[in-house]
C-alpha cells in the first residue's frame, strides 16, 4: 500500500456513528496504540491515541461489529482536522480496516 499510514491498537472509546448531510455514513473510532520500538539502538515505549474516521458503506459494514476493546489494524491517510476552537489534530482516514480480536 503506497503512501498509506498503518496503525494497530485497541478501540478505547465507544464508536461514534453519524451521517453527513449528503447521506454518507461515518464512524469515528479512537485507537490506543502501545508498542516497544528501537531508536538509536535503545528500546523505547511508543504510545499514541488517534482518532480514525471510517466513511462510506463498505467500511461501515466492516465496522458494524466493532466495539470498545477490539484490536484492529487500520490503513489509510493522515489529515489535519480543526475543531471549532481552532485546535488542530491529526486524524487517520481509513481506507482498510481489519479486526484482530
Explain what this protein looks like in three dimensions.
- By secondary structure, the protein is mainly beta.
- The protein has a 5-stranded mixed barrel.
- The longest helix is centred in the middle third of the chain and has 7 residues, at 57-63.
- It is built from 1 helix and 6 strands.
- A hairpin with a 2-residue loop joins strand 3 and strand 4.
- The model has no long low-confidence stretch (mean pLDDT 93).
- Helix content is 7%, strand content 63%.
- The chain has one helix at 57-63, and strands at residues 5-11, 16-19, 25-39, 42-55, 71-82, 88-99.
Derived structural class: mainly beta
Arithmetic mean pLDDT: 93
- Main β-sheet, spatial strand arrangement: 1-3-4-6-5
Radius of gyration: 14 Å
* Poorly predicted tracts of residues: none
Beta-strand content bin:
over 45%
What are the secondary-structure elements, in order, as H or E?
A: EEEEHEE
Overall strand count: 6
Q: Main sheet?
A: 5 strands, mixed, barrel
Work out the helix count: 1
First-last Cα distance: 23 Å
Percent of residues in helices: under 10%
Spatial shape: globular
List keywords for this structure.
101 residues; mainly beta; globular
Short summary:
This protein has 1 helix and 6 strands. It is mainly beta. A hairpin with a 2-residue loop joins strand 3 and strand 4.
Ordered list of secondary-structure elements with their pairings:
Blueprint: E1 5-11, E2 16-19, E3 25-39, E4 42-55, H1 57-63, E5 71-82, E6 88-99
Parallel strand pairs: 4-6
Antiparallel strand pairs: 1-3, 1-5, 2-3, 3-4, 5-6
Pfam families: SSB_1
Keywords: DNA replication, DNA-binding, Primosome
Family: Belongs to the PriB family.
Amino acid at each position: 500500500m503506497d503512501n498509506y499510514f498503518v496503525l494497530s491498537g485497541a478501540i478505547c472509546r465507544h464508536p461514534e456513528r453519524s451521517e453527513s448531510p449528503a447521506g454518507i455514513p461515518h464512524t469515528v473510532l479512537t485507537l490506543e496504540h502501545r508498542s516497544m520500538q528501537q531508536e538509536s539502538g535503545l528500546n523505547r515505549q511508543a504510545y499514541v491515541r488517534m482518532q480514525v474516521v471510517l466513511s462510506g458503506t463498505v467500511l461501515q459494514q466492516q465496522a458494524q461489529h466493532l466495539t470498545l476493546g477490539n484490536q484492529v489494524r487500520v490503513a489509510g491517510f493522515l489529515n489535519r482536522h480543526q475543531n471549532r476552537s481552532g485546535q488542530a489534530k491529526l486524524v487517520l482516514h481509513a481506507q482498510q480496516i481489519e479486526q484482530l480480536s
